[in-house]
Model the fold of this input.
Amino acid sequence: MTQDFRWYVVNVYSGFEKKVSEYIQEQATKKGLADQIETILVPTEEVIEIKKGAKVTSERQFFPGYLLIKVRLTDELWHLVRHSPKVSGFLGARGKPTPVSQEEVNRILAQVEEGVKKPKTSIRFEVGEQVRVSEGPFSSFSGMVEEIDEDKQRLKVAVSIFGRATPIDLDFGQVEKI
Done:
């Protein structure tokens, strides 16, 4: 096979991506194949969730059931990965691993980097939905969602101040669903 390091996608049981990654690394070290593995990547992003009224940051995978591996794919390494517990196989036609382009990997790495810098909120809002402000000067006010900006993770909420509907601009994390 090829002597260059190339990226491949490995299909694994969902929820076992990190364990499989560690297992492959351990076995490669034991069998003297560690120099043929450059990187094993489980693409994840940080997500902010509201649980029991508190903001909790958790990790979510971009591609559940898959991991990216940059290797010099030899027959020995192919067998090691392919016969690891919880591995279904490499992505490719008829059991033959197909390398992923560097451009595709760069796009995935950019998504991972963005997810680390700017965690996404896993809460979805709808226009017309009732929400309660949980942070800031309007804390404990209730209002109705008028506009949603998913990219900036902001909402325009109409709250009643002195009997008049007043629109206020808030982050997703500053409101909670009623």
